[in-house]
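Submission sheet (multi-component)
Chains listed below:
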Amino acid sequence: MHNEPHIVSAFDRDLETVQALVMRMGGLVEKATLDCARALETRDEELARRVLADDSAIDALEAQVNEECARVIALRQPTATDLRTVLSVLKVAGGLERMGDYAKNIAKRTSVLAQFTPIEGTAGTVRRMAKQVELMLKDALDAYIRRDAQLAADVRSRDQEVDQIYNSLFRVLLTHMLEDPRNITACMHLHFIAKNVERMGDHATGIAEQVIYLVTGQMPEDPRPKDDRTPFVASVND
Amino acid sequence: MNDMRIAERTVGTNAAKISARGVQVYYGETHALKDVDVDILDRTVTAFIGPSGCGKSTFLRCLNRMNDTVAIARVEGTILLDGQDIYDKRIDPVQLRAKVGMVFQKPNPFPKSIYDNVAYGPKIHGLTRNKGELDEIVESSLRKAALWNEVKGRLNDPGTGLSGGQQQRLCIARAVATSPEVLLMDEPCSALDPIATAQVEELIDELRENYAVVIVTHSMQQAARVSQRTAFFHLGNLVEYGETGQIFTNPKDTRTESYITGRIG
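Outcome: structure written.
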């Protein structure tokens, strides 16, 4: 990897600008991830509303990143590391935008869930899962800034922990629904929430993979460790 | 946009037209080219890039023995064209240059008519028996150089009266007229405007069907646009040689990376 400045210093400024935008997006998404889970656990409708409202800032930043990247490509014709930087910035911004949308969706469902009796233990588990995802995202973004492929590979391997929490939550929700059909609405919402967090983990992993591409010029070839077994679950006893 | 070059970039299967091994060039005391090994593939555009004085033009000029004309230049190593050593004593450099044509930086048509510019090579090499055959070669060469339609009505006008871009294509027609197998181009577009440059680049891509084309260029974007293989020279060394897409997305050598991304290396 190269960190020497370009001969044309405006090129450096352009690349730094788009990367700074992505990092700002990253900060907002980290906050949204933690906030939506906290709002769910503490049944804080006001906080959920704020997460909902703040998503537009993430979307606006993504639009700005896309525009800046298009300009850099058109005006500077980046190659090699510079090209990979621009491509990875675009993909990371896309991933962050999706994560923001999932947080927003969780916040929406939180408002609905506030009208139901809490399902014991589930919101705490979702929050644990969200914390895990937020840590993965934080490390992925740190790896991006430091151009640290090792840390990125570590993030990639941690996604299976999120999958495991999701698996157990899936079973817990099934059990609750079987025990008392009046829980079904709340459990369905909680399941979508859990699934959203699980997907957020996948996007954090995708960002880590972009770091590996940026640093090495190659996407990781080995299959990522995955542990989502719910597609094969037919009953609670599986 | 109808650029299918990316799909056509798989050129690794083409056979080597020129094989250079251990090529050294000295200009007096100066060691200008150090131990260059390279295989130039047939029916492929190969670009040589690198900063000024890196040896890329020197190496290009080795390929048709243009360095013979420089008194203080000394060339060592072997360069094989279709397996034959071009520095062998039995090789006539004039015949060699008919096989390995060259186009220079500045368009340099002879102060003759458009027709005579193209006809000159075939005439002195005795490639035709009569005027009819010569007419045919002139027309087909001008067609290959994508110039025929613009000049067919005024073949007797002086070549120097054409526009810069047309003059350069006339020089390409002149190089093509002796039925070469390899075309060397030293900065063929540096004196041309963007439209003329695009026309010459399109032409280079068409010439690839019949020739091995080697182009020296200072424009990295041009190298990226026209070539299938790129060689990066630095301080007389061939630093990296590979598929153009790989060189421009993921170069292996940090010196290549610094150069193509415009960093102070």
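Remark: Chain A has a mean pLDDT of 94.
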